[in-house]
Predict the 3D structure of the following.
Amino acid sequence: IDNYVDTTFDISLNANTEISFVVDSTPTSMAGRFTLVFSRSVSSKTPIVSVESLDKIFPNPVTNGNFFVELNNEFSGNCNIQVVNSAGQAILKQTVKQVENMKMIKVNLGDKTPGGIYHIIISDEKGKKITRHIIVR
């Protein structure tokens, strides 16, 4: 469990598992961030979405306040997009209706967003959730 961005990952007991994450200036992005849970059955409060479900976030780094999210077919219904700063504050919340009919979503942060690393949290009505990071310059 990544406690900082509230996501869970399955870890193989038979092969190497790689998990990408970013450490920023927030203390909770470092110490005590991860919890390892062993159980006989796989259970999670958030269904896992494969990396292939999110093709791209671009451009990254963001230079003009706008970026695009390109999705595959795993998300459906209304989709929520949150952009969270390093202090854990949501600086943008956007709902996209009927995301299964869309390939590309434009997100506008505005040109006054301070430079830094931001978390992009995308979730749908069925509880599928994925988190990625962007850099704003």
